[in-house]
């Protein structure tokens, strides 16, 4: 009965209206349907059925361009953060971090590709994918989060650099401590060397030591002279005229020998005043030890010889321009190098207000000259540590050659134009390197002989 009632009720609810003349007939049909047991497939006739449709849904919201842009920027920030993490994971190499950052970067690239495809494949705004209303807020949050991750990666890299710098600083501090320890040991050895017993002083101050230092000094003077001659040639100077102005009327065996005159000019100029204790002071001449104990003077000279031998002369002169060595270099440079000569060496250089004739670090002869002056200064300190003090001499022009006191600077040479009957000896043209007296021993002076012919 409930089934029949439900069927009848359903039929009644979907009926909207009927013809007036059919109303009674419908009621009779309903009564008959109640009394009878109709089959489920029973078809109801004589009624007008209208299907009710649901209310139409509102149109989907259109894609907000601002939301799309925010999503795009958020994805870009994510990719940038992932790529930065990928770079950071390579130094030092962390395989797991590299793989994770690589996957993240690839996923963000795919997200960018999807955004691009969704925009260009749907030109109609109504068919574009719909983003939630809060997507722009979520995009801003994501962008800020990825910016924080980027800053975190930068901070991690900077912290790694700081840790590395700290490790380097610690290593340098340890090296400094080691150097200071080594310096202290050397200082103690230097103190012992500067005040050795008398027997050791005599062993140190031998003729062989002085001769060895003298040979080193001569090599440095030759090196400076070659540098000077090279600058003169490049500047257009005539070496013949320069040599003739220094020593006129000298008969050179070869044209190239005129450079010996320039070597003599430099060497004798640097050794001028060598026999004075105040080698660095202007106007000091002759040996003067008045009021000074000889042994004290010897020990002071030996100490200065050892100390100067262990320092860099360029650092010494730049660190203390008022020291005796700096004054010595300045005075000798002004005596030997004329301002006009130096100006021609730097003719094509832009020196601005450069003071010609003064020893300056920017000058073309600065380093070789300081090295030469340092060698002669060291030799002078060693000479004044001997007892008696080492003497110096040079041979005047026109003096007959003596194998005891002189040595020809041109080794392979013979005299020419000699008077065989008078058996005259060759004459000295000029002294190139002065000679020295160490006690009773003579170190020969090196001279250039006038009127020689080189043996081929």
UniProtKB/TrEMBL annotation:
- Name any Gene Ontology BP term: negative gravitropism
Q: What residue ranges carry the coiled-coil annotation?
A: 148-189
| Keywords from the named record | Coiled coil
Its domain of life reads Eukaryota
The record's listing under InterPro entries reads: DUF641_pln (IPR006943), GIL1-like (IPR040225), GIL1_IRKI_C (IPR056813)
One family from Pfam that matches here is GIL1_IRKI_C
Q: Describe the location of the GIL1/IRKI C-terminal domain by residue ranges.
A: 392-448
Which ranges carry the DUF641 domain? 66-189
Q: List the protein's name.
A: Protein GRAVITROPIC IN THE LIGHT 1
């Amino acid at each position: 009965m409930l089934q029949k009632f439900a069927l009848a009720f359903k039929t009644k609810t979907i009926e909207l209206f009927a013809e007036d003349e059919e109303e009674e007939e419908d009621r009779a049909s309903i009564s008959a349907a109640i009394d009878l047991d109709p089959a489920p497939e029973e078809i109801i006739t004589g009624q007008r059925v209208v299907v009710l449709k649901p209310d139409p849904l509102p149109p989907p919201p259109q894609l907000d361009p601002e939301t799309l842009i925010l999503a795009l920027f958020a994805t870009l920030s994510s990719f940038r953060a992932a790529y930065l993490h990928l770079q950071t994971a390579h130094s030092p190499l962390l395989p797991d971090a590299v793989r994770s950052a690589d996957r993240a970067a690839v996923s963000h690239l795919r997200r960018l590709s999807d955004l691009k495809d969704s925009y260009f494949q749907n030109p109609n705004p109504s068919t574009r994918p719909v983003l939630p209303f809060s997507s722009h807020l979520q995009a801003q949050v994501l962008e800020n989060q990825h910016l924080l991750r980027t800053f975190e990666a930068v901070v991690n890299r900077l912290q790694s650099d700081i840790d590395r710098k700290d490790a380097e600083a610690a290593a340098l501090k340890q090296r400094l401590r080691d150097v200071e320890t080594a310096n202290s040991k050397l200082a103690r050895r230097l103190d012992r060397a500067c005040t050795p017993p008398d027997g050791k002083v005599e062993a140190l101050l031998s003729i062989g030591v002085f001769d060895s230092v003298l040979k080193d000094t001569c090599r440095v003077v030759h090196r400076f002279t070659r540098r000077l001659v090279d600058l003169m040639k490049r500047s257009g100077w005539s070496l013949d005229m320069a040599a003739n102005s220094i020593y006129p009327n000298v008969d050179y065996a070869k044209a190239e020998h005129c450079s010996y005159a320039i070597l003599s000019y430099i060497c004798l100029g640097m050794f001028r005043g060598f026999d004075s204790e105040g080698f660095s002071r202007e106007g000091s001449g002759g040996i003067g030890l008045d009021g000074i104990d000889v042994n004290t003077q010897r020990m002071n000279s030996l100490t200065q010889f050892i100390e100067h031998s262990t320092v860099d002369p360029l650092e010494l002169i730049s660190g203390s321009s008022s020291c005796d060595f700096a004054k010595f270099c300045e005075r000798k440079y002004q005596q030997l190098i004329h301002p006009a000569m130096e100006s021609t060496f730097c003719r094509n250089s832009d020196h601005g207000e450069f003071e010609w004739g003064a020893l300056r670090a920017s000058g073309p002869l600065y380093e070789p000259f300081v090295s030469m002056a340092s060698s002669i200064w060291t030799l002078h300190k060693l000479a004044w540590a001997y007892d008696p003090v080492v003497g110096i001499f040079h041979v005047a022009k026109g003096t007959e050659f003596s194998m005891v006191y002189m040595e020809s600077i041109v080794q392979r040479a013979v005299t020419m134009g000699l008077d065989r009957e008078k058996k005259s000896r060759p004459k000295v043209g000029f002294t190139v390197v002065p000679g020295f007296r160490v006690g009773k021993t003579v170190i020969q002076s090196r001279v250039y002989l006038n009127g020689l012919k080189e043996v081929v």
